[in-house]
Amino acid sequence: xxxxxxxxxxxxxxxxxxxxxxxxxxxxxxxxxxxxxxxxxxxxxxxxxxxxxxxxxxxxxxxxxxxxxxxxxxxxxxxxxxxxxxxxxxxxxxxxxxxxxxxxxxxxxxxxxxxxxxxxxxxxxxxxxxxxxxxxxxxxxxxxxxxxxxxxxxxxxxxxxxxxxxxxxxxxxxxxxxxxxxxxxxxxxxxxxxxxxxxxxxxxxxxxxxxxxxxxxxxxxxxxxxxxxxxxxxxxxxxxxxxxxxxxxxxxxxxxxxxxxxxxxxxxxxxxxxxxxxxxxxxxxxxxxxxxxxxxxxxxxxxxxxxxxxxxxxxxxxxxxxxxxxxxxxxxxxxxxxxxxxxxxxxxxxxxxxxxxxxxxxxxxxxxxxxxxxxxxxxxxxxxxxxxxxxxxxxxxxxxxxxxxxxxxxxxxxxxxxxxxxxxxxxxxxxxxxxxxxxxxxxxxxxxxxxxxxxxxxxxxxxxx
Length: 465
Hints:
The chain has 465 residues and is of the alpha/beta class. It has 15 helices and 22 strands. The protein has helices at 36-48, 55-71, 73-84, 88-108, 151-162, 177-188, 203-211, 225-235, 258-265, 289-301, 321-336, 365-368, 384-392, 407-416, 450-456; strands at 4-6, 9-11, 15-20, 27-33, 116-118, 129-136, 139-143, 166-170, 196-198, 218-222, 239-243, 249-252, 281-285, 340-343, 347-348, 351-352, 355-358, 375-381, 399-403, 421-424, 444-445, 458-464. The longest helix is centred in the N-terminal third of the chain and has 21 residues, at 88-108. It starts with a strand and ends with a strand. InterPro entries: Ald_DH/histidinol_DH (IPR016161), Ald_DH_C (IPR016163), Ald_DH_N (IPR016162), Aldehyde_DH_dom (IPR015590), ALDH-related_metabolic_enz (IPR051020).
């Protein structure tokens, strides 16, 4: 199957890469590898095309695409399971999130507007009016990771189309098949094919050719901080947004509703722990830590680990065995450093069982780096001041959760936590497609969330009358 769409045509490539099911190891498909010449051809075609869609047209296409995904929800969820190893429950939730996001994109496509600004506000007394508008930035290169193979793609392509841009999409070589299905759905919904280019392939060949093109108007990337820095140093002055992950903190104070906090902390196990905004470390007041850890252990013990395609499975696999080995090594290092293994720690191939650790030192890699696996490490703290200091003591700052009933604690957290968002009485995994999403420090630059992504993907222009 050809998986590259260039200038409105599905094109053949000389080489392909296998896509394997992380649970069984079997080949479930293959993806074309676009070479440097095909990437250059794709960008020239994208730059040459001038869309003529109205805001209403774009909105209708996105609504129709959402309807198409909904009609094929089982097919999309099955595709996600097969290529990523995510549990079917997680895959179903991902399809639902993509539907909600596209429908918000359809609404926001009609709300892109500027303002009228009088200029007689200075001593010069110019009696003019400046009128602003938001125009598409041009050709947006969207580079997406393996986790959440549908929603990560929709999160970038949806706002870009809503804003009237042309898009060159490169999904992860590990999970490209769902992206191909999504692109076909958009075309079936009436999107002019030249507006959306799909380039599958490896980071070393296809990805590098993409980011070295001088025909890009914007790059939107989700992935590791290391790759984000490489892209930023390569593209130079090009417009860009980066969502680069996190080691998301959940802070549980001594007045917290502990059962609710434990349920939120169990978000560490969702999508097999492979979520940039997921719970990566839990900072619990020492006065309630014992009770909290037992509640969290019960949450972990109740989860079913197994075949991702089984409807009863709660936790599927990581993306591959190498990823699971990294998690296993960090857990073992944590135990050697003094952490207490409360539950889990087991690995078989790419599968890693939900793991709870208590009394985790705050300076070890398990909690200082982004550990992409189903781990819930508990760090005991004396109070909010210490929790804030530990939370801020890493190079990440995406989102943080805070369980408390004290308004003063909420205010302090909002003032002092170095993160993009503070979520009260819920985990850092909270999301909604109509609110801003993004971080500080090595968690990225710019904001997603449909309306805010559209602002990133448009250029503000001014006419003075």
